[in-house]
Amino acid sequence: MATTPKGFARAIIVLTTVTAAVMELIDTSIVNVALSEMGGSLGVNIEDVSWVITAYAIANVIIIPLTGFLAEYFGRKNYYIASMIIFTLASYMCGQSNTLVELVAWRFIQGVGGGALLSTSQAILFDAFEPKDRPIAAGLDRKSTRLNSSH
Predict the structure, then answer these.
(1) What is the number of alpha carbons within 13 Å of residue 147 lying toward its C-beta?
(2) pTM above the 0.70 mark?
């Protein structure tokens, strides 16, 4: 059995996993605030621009049930890093999109990357603590979730 990280290594794991989880949680709701501005910028109505939210949700619904299998198949670390890269690249491309179709497509890809971040972050965070200290990890995870819901 692998030993759990201590000190600075654990702090980096906690910081990374909590940051990734918060990014994903914020991203699921932050678009709601800007829907009318996005619609105006893209020249589409609110019903059409709502596909930006729907695309992300559909991607999450597809990828979240597969996360355990994919993490085991590719290795949790590789899957997590790939998910962060996909999420970050797709986030950038969402910002560069000039049409609704582009934005919806990149938002779907962003949802594929983001869908793995929350559950995989939790698993990595729990593995960074000894079983007797895992309530601390659960508290850290809940605190990051509450930070998002307060907005």
Answers:
(1) 15
(2) yes
